Amino acid sequence: MGTTPTDRRTTTAPATDDRFAVPLRGVAVDSETRCAHWDDPVDVIALRFGCCATYYPCDACHDTAADHPAEPWPRDRFDEPAVLCGVCGATLSAREYLDCDDDACPRCGADFNPGCREHRDRYFEA
């Protein structure tokens, strides 16, 4: 990808990354939401946490940048925006994201990491 070291930012509470239309924090986040922990071409989503309603590229970013324990997005709010596509900037409801059988953004077609299915319980209430 075309990311340079100067494209990376780290944000901690209360600061958020002004490159995104949603409140987003993380560790060494690039312009498509890849972070220090997940940096493959398909690692292009940020997830909204139930505890603070803030988006993070991953739970490790939340653990590093937040001052509280992570809580997954609550099931009773699955129709609200909870996932940011780092490629096109679209926000998806938890339901829209979880229903993406092809692991791709329904708006722009960008591939999402299919491995994220293995740890959805960290981000979404069962």
Spatial strand sequence of the major β-sheet: 4-3-5-6
Shape: globular
Multimerization status: single chain
**Rg of Cα set:** 13 Å
Query: How much of the polypeptide forms β-strand, as a percent range?
Result: 15-25%
The helix content, as a percent range, equals: under 10%
Biggest sheet statistics: 4 strands, antiparallel
- The CA-CA distance between the termini, in Å, is 34 Å
Q: Quick check: average pLDDT?
A: 95
Work out the helix count: 2
Number of strands: 6
Which structural class do the helices and strands define?
Answer: mainly beta
Write the element-wise H/E pattern from the N-terminal end onward.
EEEEHEEH
Low-pLDDT ranges = none
Describe the structure concisely for a colleague.
With 126 residues, this protein is mainly beta. It has two helices and six strands; from the N terminus they run ββββαββα. The chain has a four-stranded antiparallel sheet with strand order 4-3-5-6. It has a two-stranded antiparallel sheet with strand order 1-2.
